[in-house]
Design goal:
There is one protein chain. This protein is mostly helical. About 45% of the residues lie in helices and about 10% in strands. It has nine helices and five strands, in the order ααααβββββααααα. The protein has helices at about 15-20, 20-30, 30-35, 40-45, 110-120, 120-130, 140-145, 155-170, 180-195; strands at about 65-70, 80, 85, 90-95, 100-105. Strands 2-1-5 form a three-stranded antiparallel sheet, covered by helices on one side. Strand 3 and strand 4 form a beta hairpin. The radius of gyration is 20 Å and the shape is elongated. The relative contact order is 0.11.
Amino acid sequence: MIPNAHYSNVETEEAFADRFPLPYSYLKNYEGLLRARASYRRYQSHLPFYVIYCVGDYTFSPHKVVWMEQQDPASFRAVVVSSLDTAEAQQKLVVPDHKLYFAALGSADEAHYLCGFLNSAPVRAWLGGFLHGKQIATTIFEYMNVPAYDPMNARCIAIADILNEAHSTRANMREPGLLDDNTERLLARHVKAVCTP
């Protein structure tokens, strides 16, 4: 449950309780724990006790590329997520938790392109040399020039297609493994080409 759409524009506790009595009642059961959160005490103590920090329009983007905060840069992996479609939760938007980093994208093709770019051998090599075992946050975009997705660029389309195919063939697999060597080489070639002006 996400009780606020942004951390700087939050309705009053009374308004929230009136609009959403059952969620409010549930959250009220945990008021002590929620008030004890470090981010709440530091940044939000003037707001209702259940407010979540660091949420915004990007949180609710239907297309995201997600990666674990803690992973070996030399074997970095990311994945595209959009919605959860199970018997319990059909077409529910996926919102990553605080141990995952993500980039919000405008389309599925753009998300597959970015995911393919990030999952390529040249980017893993760069991350391994740049981060040397550190956390892999969104700051990688400050130091790595990721060319924007261009739906008219054949290389961008090819990168997106490779990842879309990889996600399709690996759906619901417990241990999906890496791409085969030929696909890895092809992906690397497209990534290098899209980075060359």
